Amino acid sequence: MENQWMEVRSCAWLHEAQFLKSVLDAAGIEAMIPNEQTLGIQPLYGTALGGVRLLVRPEDFERAAEVLDSPAVRLERSAPPTKNDEK
């Protein structure tokens, strides 16, 4: 069990997973992104690999999920503002 990791999140893009990894690192939770080097060179492989997976150790899974679910950590996908939004 020592060498096993669990997927706590799956992201569409490497930079999203790297952001979440940095949040976990700041909380003292070890995390890793398998295929990080490959996805850094060819980001479109993420879809073929089933998304960009963020992994943590099983004993840290619950705490990591809580940290990532907190309101302070939100990845919102939105379109850039348009002229109509500036009213």
Strand % is 5-15%
Number of helices: 4
Low-confidence stretches: none
**Structural class determined from secondary elements:** alpha+beta
How can the largest sheet be summarized? 3 strands, antiparallel
Helix and strand pattern:
EHEHHEH
Tell the overall outline.
flat
What's the gyration radius in Å?
Answer: 15 Å
Q: How many structural domains can be distinguished in the coordinates?
A: 1
Q: How far apart are the termini?
A: 56 Å
Overall number of strands: 3
Mean pLDDT: 83
> Strand order of the main beta sheet, please?
1-3-2
The helix content is: 25-40%
Describe the structure.
37% of the residues lie in helices and 15% in strands. The protein contains 4 helices and 3 strands, in the order βαβααβα. The protein has helices spanning 14-26, 36-41, 45-48, 61-69; strands spanning 6-11, 31-32, 52-56. It is flat and about 45 Å long. The protein is of the alpha+beta class and 87 residues long. It has one domain (6-72).
